[in-house]
Design a protein that fits this description.
two-stranded antiparallel sheet, binds S-adenosylmethionine, 9 strands
């Protein structure tokens, strides 16, 4: 069975993501602030989502172009709407980063909050390296290190409980959270030079129980919840996690950690 055999598994509720992705946009803006751009480059946004950061990137490239790729058709259609006024300087393409069809094409690649959804980083980084023109750069961030360890432990314990275990038979977490050292090695194996990686905490505090109950299933645990067939039981799963989060200090906080990734393709 292929990784994406479940037709819903690649899909997101993109309007909810667009509305609730303030944490991802805040982190992503910091990644974009690290770029040294001439302003006329061709840049790939790998896993562009609903295009909020793609739009910011376009603003930094007044004479350049961006290609945004994403696996989710819902995300791409929200991005098309969001970027409708971009005057033809952006192309949005449905594709899997594990099968990226570009070679020697881009001056740079930006990616935020996407790579941890791709389980084979050797293959991913190899594809990104091939997509870059000689001398091209990668500036990226994704989940890494002990990202959401507390939430993962709670969700996995609940998934293994008597009520839910039958739904999670054979379930594998959909993420890879590499640490700074192993991701640097993976980037170098793909051919990248001038590699720099680091992991940083990004504790995120949601407003209240209602915010938590909407954010967590749509942004973090959507692949877990797809396993539970009834809406009533999905609500029970989230109710239990929300009760636990209410007891945290601070309440409704998410123990996010980000992995920063930088590298360059050798020049000809
Ligand atoms: C959390 S969103 C981040 C979107 C955007 N970069 C941002 O920071 O708001 C993760 C995105 O990665 C995309 N994604 C996950 N796996 C992918 C893959 N194998 N190929 C392409 N896109 C993928 C998802 O569809 C989703 O749009």
């Amino acid at each position: 069975m292929s990784e994406h055999a479940n037709p819903t598994s690649r899909e997101w509720n993109s309007s909810v993501y667009h509305r609730l992705s303030a944490p991802q946009v805040t982190w992503g803006k910091k990644v974009l602030a690290r770029l040294w751009l001439r302003g006329d480059e061709l840049v790939l946004d790998a896993g562009c989502g609903t295009g909020r950061l793609t739009g910011e990137l376009l603003e930094a490239l007044p004479g350049g172009r961006v290609v945004g790729v994403d696996l989710s058709q819902n995300m791409l259609s929200s991005a098309r709407e969001h970027l409708a006024q971009s005057g033809g300087r952006v192309s949005l393409v449905a594709c899997d980063l594990s099968h990226l069809p570009f070679a020697n094409a881009f001056d740079g690649i930006v990616s935020t909050a996407a790579f941890h959804w791709v389980l084979d980083h050797d293959r991913l980084f190899g594809n990104l390296y091939r997509a870059l023109a000689p001398g091209g750069w990668l500036e990226a961030q994704c989940g890494g290190g002990p990202n959401i360890a507390r939430l993962r432990q709670r969700a996995n314990a609940l998934a293994a409980s008597r009520q839910f275990a039958a739904y999670f038979e054979g379930f594998r977490e959909p993420w890879l959270f590499e640490d700074a050292e192993s991701s640097a090695e993976t980037l170098r194996r793909a051919g990248f030079i001038d590699v720099e990686t680091s992991v940083e905490p990004a504790l995120t505090i949601l407003d209240n129980a209602e915010h938590y109950r909407e954010f967590v299933p749509n942004i973090i645990l959507r692949r877990h919840l797809e396993n539970i067939p009834s809406a009533a039981e999905r609500a029970q799963f989230m109710a239990r996690l929300t009760e636990q989060a209410a007891e945290d200090d601070p309440p409704f906080s998410l123990d996010y950690w980000r992995l920063n990734l930088r590298g360059r393709k050798v020049s000809d």
